[in-house]
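Quick check before the chapter quiz. The format below is the same one you will see on the exam, so make sure you can read both the input and the output lines.
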Amino acid sequence: MSTLYTGIGELTTNDPEVGGDDLLGRIRDAALVVEDDRVAWTGPASRAPDADDRVDVCGRAVLPGWVDAHSHLVFAGDRTAEFEARVAGEPYAAGGILRTVAATRAATDDELRRNLRRHVAEARAQGTTTLETKTGYGLTPAEELRAARLAREFTDEVTWLGAHVVAPGADPGDYLDELVGPQLEAVLPFVRWADVFCEDGAFDEDQSRAVLLAARAEGLGLRVHGNQLTRGPGVRLAVELGAASVDHCNHLSDADVDALAGSGTVATVLPACDLSTRQPLAPARRLLDAGATVAIASNCNPGSSYTSSVAFCVATAVLQMGLTVAEAVHAATAGGARALRRTDVGRLTVGARADLHVLDAPSVTHLAYRPGVPLTHSVH
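Here is the expected output.
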């Protein structure tokens, strides 16, 4: 069964060869053919081939679905009081994670499943078609296994984040032994990635390296929460170990920027989190200028970034971080795909997964031109 999508005012392919100097490879007055859930053809509407079915999008823009490469959706409860305290002037600290740990442990599978279903549906309604999410609110082998199993039911990519913080009441050394032993063994059937919060108040460089090396030995890909609160070792460690991404990246030295630019590790920036925690915005402009690959993600979680709107993050990147619209859209689609080491999403070229995000606007520029306006018309 083939479907011709026509009447596309602007088609973002993320193939620069299509658009010359245009990063997004945009085609105006375009059409696209989908066959068996894959893109089979793109080009000018005037040259569109026949298909079994036809959908006219009436001049709207079409782009790849958002690839949200960083979220924390297996949780219960909320942290409204913490948010109110923070906006009243209290500094952000990682300790609030333990409140979510307590609420998540107390929740039933059905309660966690309902919450997951609601947040995934919310994200998809706003254009997200590929979603990574992490464990990390269980912090025991059984609870991390439960989180990984539930996440696998609803999301495309599952990451083990047992090294989020030290479990309440645990000795740090004993907890590290549990992480690299029974906890890692428990989650292996359900996860593709391992992550570690390499930061003051969480895990230091040596502890983080131990977790990541153990995970890599078991065949997991690596991710790192790094350089959120200080100029810590997270970026350096991520590059050293060949991690797919290092996320947050608020506090970077020149050496950190150069290391990212010379590596295959993606710098994933989290604009909504930066605003919520009142941290300095990650230097996305500086990273791009240096030649690093940048992704934009939501970091949807109940404590520091309770939003599933990648469009909001894209608008923030344009209006406050100095990115062009093309750079921000690319970072939230192709950049996210690079952060997940995926070649089948984040683009609309022949052979890619046909994740179509149709805007109720004639171009992607409206994502920043009309910030806060819900512009997703439909998701296919």
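If your answer matched, good. The CA atoms of residues 215 and 306 lie 28 Å apart.
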